[in-house]
Design brief:
The complex is a heterodimer of chains A (about 280) and B (about 240).
Chain A lengths: L2 H21 L2 H20 L12 H31 L2 H7 L3 H31 L8 H28 L3 H18 L11 H7 L3 H13 L15 H29 L2 H13 L2
Chain B lengths: L10 H4 L2 E4 L11 H10 L15 H7 L15 H13 L5 E5 L7 H17 L3 E6 L2 H7 L2 E6 L2 E6 L1 H7 L5 E6 L2 E5 L4 H12 L3 E7 L3 H12 L6 E6 L1
Parallel strand pairs in B: 1-2, 2-3
Antiparallel strand pairs in B: 3-9, 4-5, 4-9, 6-7, 6-8
Classes of the chains: A mainly alpha (about 280), B alpha+beta (about 240).
């Protein structure tokens, strides 16, 4: 068999095994439940509040927008953080010592992270469907939109996560940046409140990043059409959503291999040993 | 290395080499057998007429003594078991050239002995060249067919343990007793010295003991000779 095909298949099985491990490890499950639970609490909190000028629950709208936030949270932050951690602990060095190991490693990461995103989205939607009214989950068109936004969202976020992950020197130094990234972006991306109620310059900044478009895509899929009046230009802007997310995907997919290769080249037994000592010393 | 500059070695070349990395906490959630099977898959396309890659996982577990722990999580292994897993991962692709970097650092004597048996067995049974670096001179003496001593980045000696000892005259020690009196000498040529000793005193010589310089003696002497300030390490090759 062709070595590249073999590495791809090994990567798929690697991703599947890691996803399964996640789902059978208590701390990982707790983390997943916590993230989903936290979202639901916020959403239930705002259930009684109405969207500005509408007879529609802000909670329902937030629930849907948060699915877009999820993509960035898992696609960028989880992916990036895993790269930082696994560079630190030598997983990447092992992959580098294996023929086509880096390819298998990355495919594995993509599969396991994508699996986590999908799981979070499905569980959130499932619980949400019981708790909230107004979701248009009965229409086949909704699911179609949901699927393409999800796929494009993964393409836009996972490579970006890999690039960011290879830039940070250690997990410690990365932590605050991830928080800043998530907090900052969700504030200007119309996740928790319609973006049209933000100052205009923030609206422009928000529209640069995928999180806004992912939230918009999710809302277009799962909320009634009448709510479009709360969006910029009174439109779901599917074409623009596709364009922006595709641009992020292409840039990420071009950049990621270059950055990752550079990162892999720097890895060696002694760099891993140095990092281990640093962590063990707690500095 | 295997006819290729490592900086330009492709994936096929990589498949012929094995590296035993010092594991730390990577793959903690993986089961031992699962991890070996996953690592082995990458080597399958690189089988040759003489070498079937990868190594069968169950055979491999058996030869590193981890059969009982096949379903354990890597994080639940003891230090010694983990080290053997590292070796197993290093050799799962049946490398023609294997690198071991200070493999027994931090081992207790029993684990060290077991590990030596494992490496010895590998070198004897498999057609593999092992390059092992170590600061433990007994280890080098016990395992290596060919020893290179590196100090300050330069190779100052190259040969088997015996050859190295022979390059330094006056390093053997001869002890004997005559008329109940103990004697010790370090002659340049121990064999000639003993012959003369017998010619002179005949049966009066008792408790004769000739000791070749240990690798440690040789090492110290060579490093002093090289007049380098800090000995850096010692590399051993066994074929």
């Amino acid at each position: 068999m062709n070595p590249t095909v073999m590495a791809l298949r090994a990567g798929l099985s690697r991703g599947w095994i890691e996803l399964r491990q996640s789902l059978t490890t208590q701390s990982d499950l707790f983390g997943l439940a916590f993230r989903i639970g936290a979202v639901l609490v916020v959403v239930i909190w705002t259930r009684g509040t109405h969207l500005p000028g509408m007879d529609f629950s802000l909670g329902t709208s937030t629930l849907v927008s948060v699915l877009g936030l999820n993509l960035v949270m898992y696609g960028v932050v989880t992916m990036g953080d895993l790269l930082v951690v696994e560079r630190e602990d030598g997983t990447l060095l092992r992959a580098k010592a294996t023929p086509n190991g880096m390819l298998g490693y990355l495919v594995g990461k993509v599969v396991s992270t994508a699996g986590q995103v999908l799981l979070a989205v499905v569980i959130t939607l499932f619980i949400g469907a019981f708790l909230f009214t107004g979701l248009t989950i009965g229409h086949p068109g909704s699911w179609l939109t949901l699927i393409w936004v999800l796929v494009l969202g993964l393409l836009a976020t996972l490579p970006a996560g890999a690039v960011l992950g290879s830039l940070f020197p250690s997990q410690r130094s990365a932590g605050p940046w991830w928080l800043l990234l998530l907090g900052g972006l969700s504030a200007i991306s119309g996740i928790f409140y319609p973006i049209t109620h933000l100052p205009v310059f923030l609206q422009y900044i928000g529209q640069v990043f995928p999180m806004y478009w992912l939230g918009l895509g999710m809302r277009s899929a799962l909320l009634p059409n009448s709510l479009v009046v709360l969006e910029i230009g009174h439109s779901w802007r599917h074409l623009a959503t596709f364009g922006v997310l595709a641009t992020w995907s292409v840039v990420g997919l071009v950049l990621a291999p270059v950055v990752l290769r550079r990162m892999a080249r720097r890895e060696s037994g002694s760099t891993v040993a140095t990092r281990r000592e640093k962590v063990l010393r707690g500095t | 290395m295997l006819g290729v500059d490592p900086a330009h070695g492709g994936e096929a070349w990589r498949a012929r080499t094995g590296v035993v990395l010092q594991s730390w906490r990577d793959h903690a959630k993986w089961q031992v057998r699962e991890l070996l099977a996953q690592q082995g898959r990458y080597y399958a396309p690189y089988s040759t007429v003489g070498i079937t890659r990868p190594w069968d996982v169950d055979d491999l577990l058996e030869s590193v003594g981890l059969t009982k722990h096949a379903r354990k999580r890597v994080s639940d292994l003891s230090g010694g078991q983990r080290r053997r897993l590292d070796v197993a991962i290093g050799i799962v692709g049946r490398p023609e050239l294997l690198f071991l970097d200070e493999p027994t650092t931090g081992f207790d004597p029993e684990a060290r002995r077991e590990f030596h048996d494992l490496v010895r067995g590998l070198a004897d049974r498999e057609d593999v060249t092992i390059l092992l670096t170590t600061h433990d001179l007994n280890e080098a003496e016990r395992l290596a067919d060919r020893i290179l001593i590196l100090t300050g980045g330069t190779i100052i000696a190259d040969g088997s343990a015996d050859e190295l000892a022979r390059t330094l005259p006056g390093q053997s020690e001869v002890r004997w007793t005559r008329d109940g009196q103990p004697f010790t000498r370090s002659p340049e040529n121990a064999t000639a010295f003993v012959r003369e000793l017998f010619q002179e005193h005949g049966e009066a010589i008792e408790d004769l003991e000739v000791r070749r310089a240990s690798l440690e003696d040789t090492y110290m002497a060579m490093v002093h000779q090289a007049e380098r300030r800090t000995p850096r390490g010692l590399a051993a090759v066994t074929a």
